[in-house]
Amino acid sequence: MPLTKDSYAHEIINDDTRLQLHFSLIKDGHYFYSPPHWHGHLEIVYIQKGEMTARVNEQQYRLSDNDLLIVNSRELHSTKSSENIEDLPG
Predict the structure, then answer these.
(1) Residue of 22 and 33 predicted with greater confidence
(2) Strand (E) positions, the chain?
């Protein structure tokens, strides 16, 4: 079944509305799953070390060390990490 925005949650993010950008940081070594959702901000995911699977609309991506994923606003997406992942220090 195709993914559509009507079927999933609209995530409301209270970031700086002038920038319209969201960073997702994942705690080191912990499994992380973000179910399909969309929002009005651009989202950047950077994998410093480890692996993650991301799905943007109907396309699946496998991210690993030093990969960067940019999700445009209003695109349906989800992410799932492996257990050994490190985020960019914040």
Answers:
(1) 33
(2) 9-10, 21-23, 33-38, 42-47, 52-56, 59-63, 67-71, 77-81
Task: Taking residues 21-34, report their average pLDDT.
Answer: 67
Quickly count: other Cβ atoms within 10 Å of residue 71's Cβ: 21
What pLDDT sits at residue 88?
Answer: 46
Determine how β-strand 59-63 pairs with β-strand 52-56. Answer: antiparallel
* Strand arrangement, sheet containing 9-10: 9-10, 33-38, 77-81, 52-56, 59-63
pTM reported for the whole predicted model: 0.67
Domains of the chain, first to last: 5-81 (2.60.120.10)
